[in-house]
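Record 1 of the preview.
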Amino acid sequence: RFPEGESTEEVGARVIPKLQEILSKDAGKDILIVSHSNVMKNMHYYLAKCPVEDMVNLDFKKGGVYEYALR
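->
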């Protein structure tokens, strides 16, 4: 955690409800989200239902493109 910054858990508490809102409002549509790795880790945790312990080892590359197909 950087001084005056957010922890991964704090980011998740902010990001996941917003992601749920976006997915609900725009269900069935293509959605583009541009963000940094800490937010991406939290979104991956939620969307892929991965164990929270695995978030530490996730490595999202700068400029990477990641696609999730939700049904």
